[in-house]
Fold these 2 entries.
Entry 1:
Amino acid sequence: MDSKSDAPRTRRRGAALEEAILDAAWDQLTEGGYGDFTLEAVAARAGTSRSVLYRRWPGRVELLRAAFAHLGGTPVAPPPATGSLRGDAIALLTAMSDHRVELMILLQTRLGGFFAESGDSPEDVRELMVGPRAGSMQEAVTRAIGRGEVDPARVTDRIVRLPADLVRHQMAMTLRPVPPEDIAEIVDDCFLPLLATRAAGAGT
């Protein structure tokens, strides 16, 4: 009986099935919070069986970690190509502010149970989503180096991550998107001065 009920659900396989499950997991989390985040609920939302989820993730903590990684691997916007590091950075941070504020609200208000159960921290969630490198901002800086905008000797992982960290912090504190003027200030006053090439003869 169980096999018959599961038969129409087996058409999606591999990566397509896993993507559908992780999308359903995120929808379940945003609608019901962690209290209603169960493998049964996610399976029903994804149109598959609970056993399919258990073959991939032993419990809801592992499933949610996978959903975070999946979300982080999905670009919030196409890579910018404005022709300048300033323009690229503002475009990236604006997209982040517009599309990740929901995540910040979740982290601050509805994931206490997840952190208590898993032992993870918001920093762990960030690492799941961002990984060890700075991603799109690193690519923007690399392009700027090629244009001569940036002194490569001044580039560090911390500096490349700085603007996104500042935007993320402001969203976490306000639970609102970061205003355009604040993003411009972060880029112009905190980020670009740390990377700009020195003027000829400076410091000599």
Entry 2:
Amino acid sequence: MKRTIEADLLTDIMLMVFRINGRLLDGGDRLGASLNLTSARWQVLGAISLSPGHITVPGIAEMMGMTRQGAQKQVNKLEEDGFIEKRPNPRHQRSPFYVLTPQGTESYARISALHTGWANALAGGLNAPELRAALDLLHRFDQRLALDATESEEQR
């Protein structure tokens, strides 16, 4: 079977996303180094900070596109270093909620400010309509991947 033009282009996009992901992780690690935050730790702090209420490790993993094991590893390190703390989950004793400590709140505010400067610099010369179109395309692709994963699970 031969790939369609669209499949070839989508493959090129996938490869570019992998490359960009690596560069984003490297940049995030550099940005957070002075705050004792890696990109992975920053992601987890972000999920906790952005959640409307308390959030569990599975919730963090889903929100940030991480594995549960990866999210748990970062949660353990963040808790050990005083960035977050456990709260009881009345619905599930073995899956506690996590919240930011004052140190976590301050660190997240500081990394967010650093990110704003970084994002503004990276966005220089790009225009909003192109960025919205790219975001829309990536969102639709993400929805297709989610649907594909769901269908694959149902076939097992």
